[in-house]
Amino acid sequence: MNVPRFPSAALGLDPGTTPDRTHGADARAVDPRALIDLPTREVRRRTVLQWSLLRSRALRVGVPLAIIVLWQLASSLQLVAPETLPSPTVIIGALKELIADGELQSAIGVSLVRAATGLAIGGGIGLLAGLFAGLWRVGEEIVDAPLQMLRTIPFIALIPLFITWFGIGEGAKVAVILAATIFPMYLNTYAGVRGVDPKLLEAANVFGLSSRQIALRIILPTALPSILVGVRYSSAVALLALVVAEQINAQNGIGYILVNANQNQRADIIIAGILVYAALGIVTDLIMRALEHLALPWRPRFELA
Amino acid sequence: MNSPDNAYARSVRDERETALELDGVSRVFAGRAVLKDVSLNVRRGQFVSMLGASGAGKTTLLRILAGLDQADSGRVRVAGARSVVFQEPRLVPAKRVWENVVIGHDRLSAAKPSALAALDEVGLATHADGWPKTLSGGEAQRVALARALVREPKLLLLDEPFAALDALTRIRMYELVARLWRAHTPAVVLVTHDIDEAILLSDRIVVLSQGEISADVVVDFPRPRSRSDEASIALRTRLLAELGVTQDSPRKAA
Q1: Which residues in A lie closer than 8 A to residue B131 (C-beta atoms)?
Q2: Whole-model pTM?
Q3: Which ranges of chain B would DSSP assign to H, the alpha helix?
Q4: A298 reaches B (C-beta below 8 A)
Q5: CATH of the domain at A216
Q6: What is the pLDDT at residue B22?
Q7: Does the predicted interface ipTM exceed a cut of 0.90?
Q8: Who among B66, B92, B131 is closest to A217 (CB)?
């Protein structure tokens, strides 16, 4: 009979220890009356755990390093054309050049102000809408349906519209970032407020808290982790939107460096610019995590590790 | 007994001596009567345990007394100053332990001394500035007790507050609750399905079965009581019978 078998092997379980379903169906099944030896922690740690920890660390550091070394080798041996993929050393040279000119510093400044402006406005709108929908049922009825509908529009599709409305200057760029950051902020805030344990709210009722006290003492502090996740997501999305927005009629910022290098066929500067975007992303994420760490002292620490 | 002109004076006196008064209370959930015409009086300072199997209506009754649910019919009167300890501690994780104790006060910082005093009473003064998630289950439940007592309730409602605790912690909690009750003298309604717990702590045990009060027993032998007291054993047997369990029935069933 072709009955689907209990996937004990896939789960790494010994078939002999699983109930009747596999009994007699598996040749490896042990006598259910026999005793089996379970390894002690001491043996497991020495044989399995230590080795897997060592391997995981070595691979995590080693593989990226190996890729860079291979890349450098391929460039040095002229296996790839330098105009297609410049070597890591050339890219570092391009970065040094940009920094020496002061070009990179001013571009990062311009780009960060752009991203921060869009994030502040978009994130602010998302936060307020999330609180409004989360705290008041009527708020949810007003805000949620329209925002959920707008959410289905990819923000990149809005670029032509924003150029038509705001021209090709700073307005359209900030508007793209703004539009992109509203939803992650809204969704996480709303979910955070609504996710507060109803049992806590019931207790608050018994202990005579006013609606205002319930919002300030219970709902907002408890929803803060989720709100901060919203801030972190929005920041990441703001950087993504920044990259796209800066391609619109670039006059300054990191986007300008990229477009300019593109026109001059300078792959080394383009890759350097991409690396700067990546570094901004990492730094933003680190800052946000540090912020969460400081703002949420009551959370068990392992969640932030 | 009393002459009619004493009726008013008597009602005022009753008012001062009564912690809760239920008169013909009924509650129906989706066509099923959970409470049927329940009448009960508890005088101030009395420790009453409400005993019953799961689904007997005891938690519904407690929720009505706490104001978290409303009776469909009948009259419910309770002391204005009342407080609840739930089965779970229900502490706000983002607030420090002392802030949780005085969470209902208008200004938290001004109430800190009373929070510390209440925490001291439950033996947790050193944890005042800690976070709820760092507490053990028993400690968290003691904070919940402190939070209930800081309001100086005239009626303290306990909804199976020991059910989630381990057996050793539970014994310590019995002593703590008994001590706090003697010190603050609120009327207590303890909802439980643990007969021994009810016998150890109460002045009076009310058995609820299928939404009706099936027994109302005064426990008048002296405290501190032990499970192995003869009176305890006799009362346990009687209560088990009220709940439909005879002592040898498990063996018959097996």
Answers
A1: 297-298
A2: 0.79
A3: 7-17, 58-66, 97-101, 112-121, 137-149, 167-184, 195-201, 230-242, 249-253
A4: yes
A5: 1.10.3720.10
A6: 92
A7: no
A8: B92
